[in-house]
Amino acid sequence: MIGHKHCPICETPASQGCAHLSLAVEAREFVKRCVERCQGQKQFRALCVERLRQRRRTGEWVPERDDFTWLETAFCEEFLKRLAWFGGIDFEWRTGPKPGQGGFWVLLWSKDPQRLWWDLRDEFERQIQKAHAGEAKADPRNQPEFRSVPP
Ligand SMILES: [Zn+2]
């Protein structure tokens, strides 16, 4: 059947599930579920706020929602792909209980899903810190007399 995937690590059909299937969820739920699974809700929110602040300051156009907050491919580019425990993502068409209820599901693979989740939460934290550090360097007004928060 079209679009039926196998685990890239052990070749088990995705529909059967195996230890490497970190997440199988409808595409529109993907980002939310990843954030939940790594228990990084707080970090992720902080990161979104930080990104928004940066764009506003640089005068960049600000979309209503950043792509990575809802689009699985953008989230993957931004966060998952750089993780050592990331094993890949696949898309699979799955049918729902009634006709017309089918949808695209995202399958997330990892040799060790638990480590992948830990890694993801760390990545959020790393990016928050990077954003803070970049901000201090990039802003020419960031002279001590203009500093609004203590260093
Ligand atoms: Zn497997």
Strands of the biggest beta sheet: in what spatial order?
Answer: 1-3-2
Number of domains: 1
Q: What's the total helix number?
A: 4
For the sheet with most strands, the description reads: 3 strands, antiparallel
Bound molecules: zinc ion
Number of strands: 3
Give helix % range: 25-40%
What string, H for helix and E for strand, traces the elements in order? EHHHEEH
The end-to-end distance, rounded to whole angstroms, is 58 Å
Radius of gyration (Å): 19 Å
SS class: alpha+beta
Please tell me the overall pLDDT.
Answer: 88
What are the low-pLDDT stretches, counting only 5+ consecutive residues below 50? none
**What does the overall shape look like?**
globular
Provide a short characterization of the protein structure.
The protein is α+β, with helices and mostly antiparallel strands and about 150 residues long.
Notes on the structure:
The structure is a single chain. The protein is α+β, with helices and mostly antiparallel strands and 151 residues long. It has one domain (21-138). It is 39% helix and 13% strand. The chain has a 3-stranded antiparallel sheet with strand order 1-3-2, with helices on one face. Helix 2 (41-58) runs parallel beside helix 4. It is globular. 21% of the residues are buried. The model has no long low-confidence stretch (mean pLDDT 88). Bound molecules: zinc ion. Zinc ion binds next to loops.
